[in-house]
Design goal:
With about 140 residues, the protein is an alpha+beta fold. It is about 20% helix and about 45% strand.
């Protein structure tokens, strides 16, 4: 049995980092002085789903898209970034483009739920879109 969540996060980072129009950070690595829009990848959880024949799990990865504005919030900025991510993850129905990782097979990727937040801090308005992606993983 291996740690699949770490490898799954690596797969996400390898696919979208430097491919989309904004910086991508793994959880907890966003610089405090970041002034641009960005995406933060976070691991939310993993459930073991073993069978008699293999180790399997269901895993959840979150994309937290953070946009910042001085005046009015423009929701379309967040939606455009989300569209870039979704086009990379699933370019065709039933097929995902996550980078293969040694020792595991990613069988399915689905955007499950989406949550929106508005925040205001020190004269800056933040608009966030948080998308939960579920994955079926089988260890090979």
């Amino acid at each position: 049995m291996i740690n699949t969540m770490g490898k799954l996060m690596d797969s996400w980072q390898e696919l979208i980092d430097s491919t989309i129009s904004v910086p991508v950070y793994k959880e907890g690595s966003v610089p405090e002085d970041e002034k641009r829009n960005y995406v933060e990848l976070r691991a939310e959880g993993e459930t073991e789903n073993d069978t008699k024949h293999n180790f399997a799990s269901d895993a959840v990865v979150i994309t937290d898209i953070v946009t910042r504005f001085n005046l009015a919030i423009d929701r379309s900025v967040c939606e455009r970034i989300d569209g870039e991510i979704k086009a990379l993850i699933k370019s065709s129905p039933g097929i995902h483009n996550l980078i293969p990782q040694t020792g595991m097979q990613i069988l399915d990727v689905k955007p499950e739920t989406t949550t929106y937040f508005e925040e205001y801090e020190s004269g800056i308005k933040y608009y966030r879109k948080i998308v939960r992606y579920t994955h079926k993983i089988v260890q090979t």
